[in-house]
Amino acid sequence: MTVHPTVEELLQRREQGHSLEAPLYTRADVFDLDMDVIFRRHWIFVGVEPDVPEPGDCMTVEVGASSVLILRGEDMQIHAFHNVCRHRGARLVTAEKATIGNIVCRYHGWTYGETGALLFAEHMGPEFDTSCHGLKPVHLRTLAGLIFICLAAEAPDDFDRMAETIAPYIGPHDIANSKVAYSYDLIEEGNWKLTMENNRECYHCAGNHPELTIPLQAYGFGFAPDELDAFHRADAASYEGAQASASARWTEMGLPSAEREELLNATGFRAERLVLSGAGESHTLDTRRACGKLMADFTQADLGALSFWTQPNSWHHFMADHAVTFMVMPLAPNRTLVRTKWLVHKDAAEGRDYDLENLIRVWTATNQQDADLVALTHGGVSEPAYEPGPYSRFTEGLVEKFCQWYVARMSRHLLDAALRMPAGAPVAAE
Amino acid sequence: MTVHPTVEELLQRREQGHSLEAPLYTRADVFDLDMDVIFRRHWIFVGVEPDVPEPGDCMTVEVGASSVLILRGEDMQIHAFHNVCRHRGARLVTAEKATIGNIVCRYHGWTYGETGALLFAEHMGPEFDTSCHGLKPVHLRTLAGLIFICLAAEAPDDFDRMAETIAPYIGPHDIANSKVAYSYDLIEEGNWKLTMENNRECYHCAGNHPELTIPLQAYGFGFAPDELDAFHRADAASYEGAQASASARWTEMGLPSAEREELLNATGFRAERLVLSGAGESHTLDTRRACGKLMADFTQADLGALSFWTQPNSWHHFMADHAVTFMVMPLAPNRTLVRTKWLVHKDAAEGRDYDLENLIRVWTATNQQDADLVALTHGGVSEPAYEPGPYSRFTEGLVEKFCQWYVARMSRHLLDAALRMPAGAPVAAE
Amino acid sequence: MTVHPTVEELLQRREQGHSLEAPLYTRADVFDLDMDVIFRRHWIFVGVEPDVPEPGDCMTVEVGASSVLILRGEDMQIHAFHNVCRHRGARLVTAEKATIGNIVCRYHGWTYGETGALLFAEHMGPEFDTSCHGLKPVHLRTLAGLIFICLAAEAPDDFDRMAETIAPYIGPHDIANSKVAYSYDLIEEGNWKLTMENNRECYHCAGNHPELTIPLQAYGFGFAPDELDAFHRADAASYEGAQASASARWTEMGLPSAEREELLNATGFRAERLVLSGAGESHTLDTRRACGKLMADFTQADLGALSFWTQPNSWHHFMADHAVTFMVMPLAPNRTLVRTKWLVHKDAAEGRDYDLENLIRVWTATNQQDADLVALTHGGVSEPAYEPGPYSRFTEGLVEKFCQWYVARMSRHLLDAALRMPAGAPVAAE
């Protein structure tokens, strides 16, 4: 009875400056396309070099129905493969992290080397050609210690553009010489796009994030100037002054801070370093460093917070003492994984250099608050009476850019894909 | 391979006097239509005035994916709104019951008044028109203290017919001056129509409801006269005599008791007051009042039980000392919520005037027995070998009327809806 | 965007000697067809005569949405019915096993006799014809104590072929005079065809089944001769000698052992009796009998293991002291029930004649190991990068035959069914 609009119609008729129509958040066919178009054909953030510090260290990452095996080889290069045996399809590595020699399938013992070549397969007879049965590779790139993969046969060609622009910002924090102090997975009961939209504004911060707003200043995220009274106008001006003088100081230290934003690229990104309140050192309750041993070779702690956002699925905050990375991974139309990792200098010792609870307190609290908001919103947009509402042009501009990016990427690939893909063809690189 | 009959075909070929074909109980597309046609376009029972006794009291009711916010205003009027913020769609109130001032969205602080008007929205700039962003209203009517809502833009116009006919029956029990002594939710593992069919006959009572059959007499629900032996014939005649003399007595007291039945109206209903066994006072194990303080201004307790049934989703029993209301709400093709509330005079005190366990014992036991029967039947009708079986024309006449009503309402609206509804149009009133 | 291949296309283009394409393991529509074509139109193994040893003993078996009631009558015949009341469809018996007199529906008391005839139905009036409302029968056959049913109106006509061939093999173990010492259900997180494929090869045994490989010799399941070194070649030759001499001995005792294989029949099967290692008596850790009281009238325990495999859903091992039967029942595209039963002589007493833990140890361990492998494989074949891999022609020949049978039966019935089935027609026998 109800005629469902097609995904193409929903994308085409999207009203700018407004939240998306409900089916784009809730429908199973849209979710499947999101996984296929957004998460299989774009560069997605999946982890950090310190996840696999030594040769033989590997980790697995689930992207929809796919499992990707990420492995550091003897030559310190990081390789990525589809985590599936070429014999009868068994998963090869099931642990999230492990250290291995060769990759041996548990089912019938097929054995692959670190480059994915099939080294050994019993009972297959003399005519069997092992060279046709190596593991299928997955594109992998690193950016100043952050690991990105792309599951498409042909990855978007603008990764370098992002890497060149952003490496000077993140590089000084020397992520490759850090370690993962803590990592945890939070499942949000909402669509992944609501998770991303929530991340792209701080309009909701004052009312919902008592811990996060101690070091953060709302002005950094935009405001409606007409709404400010004399007091807040002075406050905003003082914030701008502090940001300008800090930027000048950081520039001298070789730490770029100016906003760089190319959010509408296939590999969309944005970065800027913002001054923090109080002591200005870190995302902590007292605004001071959580880790006594600073990252890289830093000698000063008041470096503010360098933030780095990517489309479609990550954001990161780099401070003098630690960094926090966030990976978003859709699990279902109404379930989204947020994996958060805290990085400190690799020589920092828990107990001596940092108190773990203090290190993670602000973002574990903030993540849970955001998860509650996402669940609240997913519940509401699932409601037949919901209709897209207006974004604030002052404080929700990046939300709008996320939606624009999403609509553009989906529209582009839906067309391309319809023209090029034979039925049932595997999407992965060969 | 299997060609699935359409809903229209299933409705059209329904064999009168027989249970429905399996897909009408089990198929997901039928369930979606049930929610859309039956539960969004008809008057449904959702609660009682004592659920929101004071100004600022509100409750939320879930109807499929919709959440409805029911709120008593300062003027004591009860309003109903779609429980979804006009900004980015967050749910406004999540508790089942709460007392609030204005309605404030937790996400970004948008604030609505008790009539739904948007009073305040930060950061939206001077050009933003709050008057276009009020909460969307939902139709609400009360009948002698019972609250009904309709989610359609245009509600069925025969609510008054039911209200005029039934108010004289229920009115004397003065529900507005009662309180909810107890409420609980039971989830039945079966389709909602099986829950309703089970409610519409007492053929199963003798074999399944040892507590309920103490005050109830099966004869009140029909019987096959040819099957009665001399003993039971005399018994039935004596029951008819008792009913006639009680009715005469109740009429003198201003308590109508004669059967009124208009079950095939869009807003279908049926009511009658039946004599109870034993002391004749209440649905209790000893057939005596459970609450010493009687409802309204009653001075006599032997008022039998006034029963009120509605299509599609409620039944109610009003006695001198207490009333019980039942709301049915489909959750999934095979899951149905039954919410039961016990009402007593608002001045009755637990412990002094009533023992809660005694008050609720008969219906908590009976509900669980019915839930078991519904689960047993849902399991069976899901079976490919199931075929519709015959209803008894003596004791399952109201089941047949429920099915007739269902088939007629669905058929009518499927046609209307196909003609009128643009794709994706919100169903709700504007 | 992605064009899904139809089931017909997937079957037609299946590459011989390779595992199936992913959708045949994972897609919901394929699963539904598997249930309809394979599990409702073929003879499936569901239990053993000792499950219902006495008149009035019954058991229920779930096959997809169907429940089948299997009942031994006063005349010792075993009957099978659809377990659904002809009145309003309630399930009649819900326990897995029970002992009953007549079959009485709990809902409204309709009562059926042991042949399925409706004996009694209250309130239905004089014109109601009970003879049209008996329980619907299900085809049932026994083979040397094993119970098979077929839910189709017309069952495959080659059951006799299997029974005649196999009865001489199993008959001597006298299953009808055994008892079920233990039964348990294991749910494997994978498609039922992966469960079956896993059962049809021992290529994986050496690496995964430390308990099972004590009595078993891999050579019995094939090997690649070119891969054997001098030592293993001698080992294989010695195994062949042992098998030959044991076979000669068994033949004298009236115990056939030669391989019989008709796996591609509609009712496909295979049997052979293989010598066991060590003491050669049983599937135990010490290769000796687990039950002191031998089955049937056996006086010798070194009878090796008679194995019997059927398409689509069972395998069985019969030794001198006990037998083990395995029933596979699909629950969902990615969930499969494996029900295992251990049978011993009906006069054997636990504690005296056998230690239960010792009796069941090998196969409870092996089943769990197999379940892990099936889950691992289901995870992998669900992966977009999965593509069918090659089977070993030496050790995976029976896997290939299972796939060939599956593809042939599906293709045949898809065609037949499309031609013959009216929409919505019940599949069951009338």
Low-confidence stretches of chain A: 422-430
How widely separated are the two ends of chain A? 44 Å
DSSP strand count of chain A: 17
CATH class of chain A: Alpha Beta
CATH architecture title of chain A: Alpha-Beta Complex
- Largest interface, C-beta closer than 8 angstroms, per-chain residues: A-C, 41 and 39 residues
Annotation field: number of helices of chain A: 9
Report the oligomer.
homotrimer
CATH homologous superfamily heading of chain A: Naphthalene 1,2-dioxygenase Alpha Subunit, Chain A, domain 1
Structural class of chain A: alpha+beta
**Within the largest sheet of chain A, what's the order of strands?**
11-17-16-15-14-13-12
Helix content of chain A: 25-40%
List the helices and strands of chain A in order. HHHEEEEEEEEEEHEHHHEEEEEEHH
How many structural units, i.e. domains of chain A?
Answer: 1
- Largest beta sheet of chain A, briefly? 7 strands, antiparallel
Strand content of the residues of chain A, in percent? 15-25%
Structural shape of chain A:
globular
Mean pLDDT of chain A: 94
Keywords (chains A, B, C): 2Fe-2S, Iron, Iron-sulfur, Metal-binding, Oxidoreductase
Organism (chains A, B, C): Breoghania corrubedonensis
Cofactor (chains A, B, C): Fe cation
Pfam families (chains A, B, C): Rieske (PF00355), Ring_hydroxyl_A (PF00848)
